[in-house]
Amino acid sequence: MVNLSSSTLVFFLVILSCFLTPVCPAASTGNSVVVSPSDSAIELGPFIEFLEDSSGSLGIDEVSSPPVTSQFSRHHNTSINQGVTTSAFWFRFTLRPVRTDHSGNANGAAGASERLLYLGKQLDYFDRIQIFTRENDRNNEIAGEWQVRDFGLFQAIKNGVRDPLYISLQMPEPQEHSLTVYLRIEVESGFFLTPTLFSPQEFTTYSNNLSIFYGMYYGIVLSMIIYNLFHYFFLRDKVRLIFIFYAAILCIYFFVANELSQTFIPTTYLLSTRKFAQLLSLITIIQIAWFASAFLNTKKSLPVLHLLLLTVMLTSTSLICALPFFPYFTIGKVILDFSTVALLVVMLTAIVSWYRGFRPARFFLLAWMFFLGGGLIYVYNFKGVFPYSFIGNNAYQAGSAIEMILLSLAIADRVKYMFEQLQAAQNRRQEQLNALTQQLVRTEEKERRRIAAVLHDSIGQTLFAIKWEIQRLFKKYKPDSEKDRVVLSYLEGCIEETRSLNAELYPPELYDLGLEAAINSLAGDVSRRFDLSVKVSSAAEPDLNSDELKFILYRSVSELLNNIVKHAQAKLVDISLSEANGTIRVSVRDDGIGFDYSPEQSSANSGFGLFSIQERLHSVGGSLKVARQHGGGSEVILSSPVTASPQH
Q1: Is 133 helix (H, G, I), strand (E, B) or coil?
Q2: Residue 363 CB: number of other CB atoms within 10 A?
Q3: DSSP secondary structure string, 398-460?
Q4: Residues 6+ positions from 155 with CB-CB distance below 8 Å
Q5: Following DSSP, what letter does each residue of 114-149 receive, concatenated?
Q6: The predicted structure's pLDDT at residue 6
Q7: Angle, in degrees to the nearest 10, between helices 272-296 and 238-257
Q8: CA-CA-CA-CA torsion sign (163, 164, 166, 172)
Q9: What pLDDT score was predicted for residue 566?
Q10: Which of 318, 395, 307, 300 minimizes the C-alpha distance to 348?
Q11: Sign of the C-alpha dihedral, residues 121, 125, 127, 132?
Q12: Number of alpha carbons in the 13 Å side-chain half-sphere of residue 30
């Protein structure tokens, strides 16, 4: 969160430091705006009077003469917002140039001969703009005729030439005349104005700042797209791919909304950009709902809210199909209300998901809060509440840029969260496997004891009784042939095998004398039976209180000796026992041909022996290590805590 807060703060500081356009306070005399040579930018909103012409039939002579002229209302906010309307609007203000600045210093009239009127949008954004200007003398009497100029979308289409970004105003002689300006504007899209009077030099600075802002925004979005695309190629995460589509569509939408696309579009198709912007906004809503559904996994975790998101997507699709059949004005109002509802549904889904324990939903929710916050600042800027017009006009985009960064963090956090959940599931399965292994070891030990008891108490005693009875008969009756003595030798061999099997199943030394004595007995038995030299050494008798650990280590050594006899072609085996820092270590080393080993292959290619040993040791917190000797042969090291605590 520290990095997130720092990056967000830096982003806002950059905007505040670079893009706060210096706006000079304007002096007014009655309804006139005083313009001095030192004024670089003047916000005209508070000095403008306006009149709504719902019929669109009023002309300049009517609105500039009684009784219509008295119907104008004073506007007091920096920005002018009439919403989505089909009415025409008249605006008027008067500019009075002076030779001195506001402190009374004489600066001459050089810097005030030309001013640029910027409405906050490119002139092609509006349907029709007519500007009427005339000079008045110092007594406010008409000193000239109305000068008329036409701008706007339909004028650009008609002429085949795009309008400039601003309206140039030639200021009259300071102290002698004033300039009265009437604007008649029609637009079916959102009627938003932030009228500002710039000096040519200040407008250049403003345009450069605007270009820097757009460059920052599109740079951030492109970086987030490339970043997530790079990770998608490695992780194949569907959520990242949906985010890339969403970011790309939103980027194109702002590219059109910023009127940057008009540079590449012939004037004949300028009108179609409005419908195209509506299409992009509806596709964006579909992408938002789709992304929320995939990111929050609503199909499994939140089925009711998943249905709401599906409804949002289906409604957006229906509106897309309806675009060709409804006027721009009508469909625009529907999209405005519907987009608000869709965003609230997404945020509600994020809140519920976070409440139910899905941690990545916090970044997801925070991202949409910035997106919504930028939209609210954008709206309140036009209501005159937010004081900084540049940030207000571009707050929606700034919120979108921060949203992109936070959504990328949310996706990364989601990957981390899913990995943690997978790791936790693997740990639970490992714990279950350990518990099962321990249970199998206990069951095996119990079953070996039972079988050993049966061999000793039943079969062994019966065989010994048979031998005793045969020997008694041999003493009473001399054996008739060599075959009778062979039968007795077979019986003695069977008794010996029974004793050996009994000792192997349940070595009494293991529980009576300890691990070292049991391994010594095992080594002697292997040496006698297989012509193999087995030596056992111990630094000190390991202090083991766990019969289970004794059994596991003894069976592991027995399994290793069997493997050596079968596969190693060895002549010498060294077994060493040691204990240090609460860990018992048993090393079994031979001089045979050796073998290759890796933990990944232990269960698949190395037979059940090593895998069984590994799992048994792991169940009591131990481990198995295989090392190949430089002079041939191999060494297997068994280690385990003497407390035999399970590994979690």
Answers
A1: strand
A2: 23
A3: HHHHHHHHHHHHHHHHHHHHHHHHHHHHHHHHHHHHHHHHHHHHHHHHHHHHHHHHHIIIIII
A4: 128, 129, 163
A5: EEEEE-SS-GGGSSEEEEEEEEEETTS-B-SPPEEE
A6: 44
A7: 160
A8: negative
A9: 84
A10: 307
A11: positive
A12: 9
Pairing verdict, β 583-590 and 634-641: antiparallel
Q: What is the DSSP string of 263-305?
A: GTS-GGGTTHHHHHHHHHHHHHHHHHHHHHHHHHTHHHH-HHH
Structure tokens at 415: 């990957």
Instruction: Give yes or no for a cis peptide into 327 (omega within 30° of 0).
Output: no
Whether the Cβ atoms of residue 316 and residue 280 lie closer than 8 Å to each other: no
Sequence-ordered list of residues with C-beta below 8 angstroms from that of 621, at least 6 positions apart, any chain: 640, 641, 643, 644, 645, 646, 647
Residue recorded with tokens 């990545």: 360
What's phi and psi for 224, nearest 5 deg? -65, -35
Per-residue confidence (pLDDT) for residue 5, from 0 to 100: 42
To the nearest 10°, the Cα dihedral for 260, 266, 267, 268? -130
* pLDDT, block means (10 residues), the chain with 648 residues: 41 44 48 82 88 90 89 81 81 86 52 80 85 79 79 83 85 79 86 86 88 87 89 86 90 81 70 83 92 91 92 94 84 82 90 90 89 76 58 77 89 87 84 75 72 68 74 68 70 74 69 80 83 83 71 84 85 87 86 71 52 79 78 83 60
- Of 137, 167, 140, the residue nearest 151 (C-alpha): 167
Do the beta carbons of residue 327 and residue 86 sit within 8 Å? no
Q: What's the pTM value of the predicted model, to 2 decimals?
A: 0.63
What distance in Å separates the CA atoms of residue 592 and residue 381, rounded to the nearest whole number? 85
Q: Which residues have CB under 8 Å from 173's CB, separation 6+?
A: 97, 109
Radius of gyration of the CA atoms of the chain, in A: 45
| Phi/psi of residue 21, nearest 5 degrees | -70, 125
Token reading at 84: 């989505």
DSSP 3-state of 39: coil
- Tokens coding 169: 């105003």
In single-letter form, the type of residue at position 290 comes to W
Task: Give the Cα-Cα-Cα angle 129, 132, 137 (nearest 5 degrees).
Answer: 155
The answer to whether the beta carbons of residues 329 and 278 sit under 8 Å apart is no
Q: How many CA atoms lie within 13 A of 602 on its CB side?
A: 13
Could you say which DSSP state residue 168 is in? E
Distance, in Å, from the CA atom of 343 to the CA atom of 294, rounded to the nearest integer, reads 16
**Which residue reads 């917002």 in tokens?**
81
Q: What is the separation of C-alpha 17 from the centre of its chain, rounded to a whole number of angstroms?
A: 30
What totals of helices (H) and strands (E) does the chain contain, helices first? 17, 19
Q: 3-class SS at 74?
A: strand
User: What is the largest distance, in Å, between two alpha-carbon atoms of the chain?
Assistant: 161
Residue 512 corresponds to which tokens in the numbers above?
A: 């009576």
Is residue 619 classed exposed, middle or buried when 0-12, 13-18 and 19+ CB atoms within 10 A define those classes?
A: buried
pLDDT for position 8? 45
Given the structure tokens 């009437």, which residue do they identify? 182
- Amino acid identity, position 110: A
Question: Amino acid letter at 98?
Answer: V
Q: Over 6-29, what HEC string results?
A: HHHHHHHHHHHHHHCCCCCCCEEE
Contact by Cβ (8 Å): 639, 622: yes
